[in-house]
Amino acid sequence: MFHRLFSRVASGVFWVGAGLRKAAPAVLPFAPVSYALSHLQVLEAESIFIIREVAAELDRPVLLFSGGKDSAVMLHLAVKAFWPAPLPFPLLHVDTGHNFPEVLQYRDERVAELGARLIVASVQDAIDAGRVTEEKGPRASRNRLQTQPLLEAIEQHGFNAVLGGARRDEEKARAKERVYSFRDEFGQWDPKNQRPELWSLYNGRHRRGEHLRVFPLSNWTELDVWQYIEREGVALPSLYSSHRREVFLRDGMLMAASPFLPTLPGETVTTQAVRFRTVGDMTCTACVASTASTVEQVLAELLASRVTERGASRADDRFSDTAMEDRKREGYF
Amino acid sequence: MELLRLATAGSVDDGKSTLIGRLLFDTKSLREDQLAAVERTSHARGDEYVNLALHLDGLKAEREQGITIDVAYRSFATAKRRFIIADTPGHWQYTRNMVTGASTADLALILVDARKGVLEQTRRHAFIASLLRVPHLVLCVNKMDLVDYDAGVFERIREEFRQFSMKLDMSDLSFIPISALGGDNLVTRSTKMPWYQGATLLHHLENVHIASDRDLIHLRFPVQGVIRPASAKKFHDYRACTGQLLGGVMRPGDEVRVLPSGFTTRIKALEFAGRPVAEAFPPMSVSVLLEEELDVSRGDMLCRPGNPPTVGQDIDAMVCWLSDQTVLNTGARLAIKHTTRVARALVKKLHYRLDVNTLHRDDQSPGLKLNEVGRVTLRTTAPLFFDAYRRNRGTGGFILIDENSNATVGAGMIHGPAVER
């Protein structure tokens, strides 16, 4: 795997840390120009720096962990950032109650393997207690309902930094969000009043009750994430590779058949070979027809894909052009 | 694949959004669903063409008001390089956004409308790029289609800008005649401007040499934290300091000095996530294990014994003020963040305000307001380990934080230690 990556990098370049390197460079001060890093190494170094800054400057951080590929990469980076020490913060999963079972299984395996502490904020509990009201109708989704349990968990545990795997290439409102995204005491994002972010000098100051959302993968793209998963051998839930599943077509997207998502008249369930590009709530995450069963094959499909991951698989962004911005203002991820 | 960060500046009228939209489109970085959304919006607005600029307006207020408010970061890749664009609005009110975008940029791309030539705004953008020491500058003369692809127009603008840029500190300057709307000289060479022999914009972005922009001579390793997993039996005596290199090269066995203590020791090992690292250089994040157990903690810095940064509490710097709520004046007290160090700073003197349009120095300025730039002397409560910003952006840059509002209110570029005057 390393060899292949190595071959992609321009000649004269060497890979430090993987055992591959050329002869020692000339004596300083005439440093050779071969001190090159690949974009993945630069992005990784930046993310690790950010995660370490959070742990150093904020006393109560938490890492959002949904079991999706971005949070899998986040967890992988966090483990690397503090090795050989254990993770200095717990994981938080906002559970909509409409999870793919494969994802829950993956979540629990990862948590057990790392000996990490997992906190689950349950949307079902919030509904049962009457704190949030479930949407009605066949297109009801609990996606938006996640905000309330998330904010409650932040308040209950006194978290002041919430690390998440959101990326700027995902959505146009996210393209404008800072790495350290300040949230007021209501968890709200104010896009017009963001702190300028210069060099790698992050400002994590806040008052009691306020907090920061921190996005170390801000500058990564979907392709970067997959290339990194391949390079590092990051484990993912089985949903990300091709499998046979009962699906039906809705609004041009392939939705997984499940008790949480009743079909409408005219929608027929068929069994197809599919995989997921993103993983979220079962009611709003679509899959794509695919036979890719290895990371390499997924990468090949991705390079040929003509649709973005949110366009291909997120029903929640189709409500309006500013759906994400609206949710973020309310305190969403 | 190498990563290049670029900052773009210009107003909507310059065709900047069209240019970026075009780059994304021509490098196949815009996907079908994004393009369909652009087509829908273009149609709804009554545009006669697919207005690629629309892809870049992210926020509701921007769409409503037809303006760009904030820095947007976008990625695209070609077979040769991976790019991150910090796209900043060009209006004077948004100087602070351009300063933000330029702070991490390898290259600044400034657009000029061929019909209008070099404007006050162009000069301001060029000044900010030089102030932030963006190593490479590209001036794109856009809308060449509207001046009949006239070589004379391009030459005149180039000459005018060159005259102005002599007053600035700029190392690498390129000029490219383009038409963003038609895609001329962006990705493919224009057939309409045979008189232009230089590279297309994308070719330039793919090939401009950025590896030597880093300082690989002066070791600068600000300590971010210390990893000491005392609880784990196997790693009972493990102790490593973490950080990201801002300058120089480190190898196991190298002699290093720890600031502020001044103790000297050797590097026992370099690691990253349990793997040995033979050699570390910017911008790598690594763990450093030292031969001797010295007291090292966050905010300290490792350097070479014979080549330390300046250690001092009196600092001479240029500051760009970023706040519309407060003013920077002599006597102001603020928090300062520099590398991994935090201290408090007193503004001992505001020497002058620099007019970013004319470069005129106003030494009667009562204080710096939003988007204004000035020369200050600061006194910090703790020593900082710094270099001149022109030598190292990482050890020469700092931010100022208002301790009342917690807002980031200033960006500073260090000239050097303050001298009495």
Automatic annotation (TrEMBL), chain A:
This is Sulfate adenylyltransferase subunit 2. One of its GO terms (biological process) is sulfate assimilation. GO terms for molecular function: ATP binding; sulfate adenylyltransferase (ATP) activity. InterPro entries: PAPS_reduct_dom, Rossmann-like_a/b/a_fold, SO4_adenylTrfase_ssu, Sulfate_adenylyltrnsfr_sub2. Residues 314-333 are annotated as: Disordered. Keywords: ATP-binding, Nucleotide-binding, Nucleotidyltransferase, Transferase. The gene is cysD. Its EC number is 2.7.7.4. Residues 61-286 form the Phosphoadenosine phosphosulphate reductase domain. Belongs to the PAPS reductase family. CysD subfamily. It is an enzyme of class 2 (transferase). It holds the Pfam family PAPS_reduct. The keyword Nucleotidyltransferase applies. It comes from Corallococcus terminator.
TrEMBL record, chain B:
The keyword Membrane does not apply. PROSITE patterns: G_TR_1, G_TR_2. Gene3D superfamilies: P-loop containing nucleotide triphosphate hydrolases (3.40.50.300), Translation factors (2.40.30.10). Residues 1-214 form the Tr-type G domain. It is an enzyme of class 2 (transferase). Its EC number is 2.7.7.4. GO terms for biological process: sulfur compound metabolic process. It comes from the Bacteria. GO terms for molecular function: ATP binding; GTP binding; GTPase activity; sulfate adenylyltransferase (ATP) activity. Keywords: ATP-binding, GTP-binding, Nucleotide-binding, Nucleotidyltransferase, Transferase. This is sulfate adenylyltransferase. The lineage of its organism: Bacteria, Pseudomonadati, Myxococcota, Myxococcia, Myxococcales.
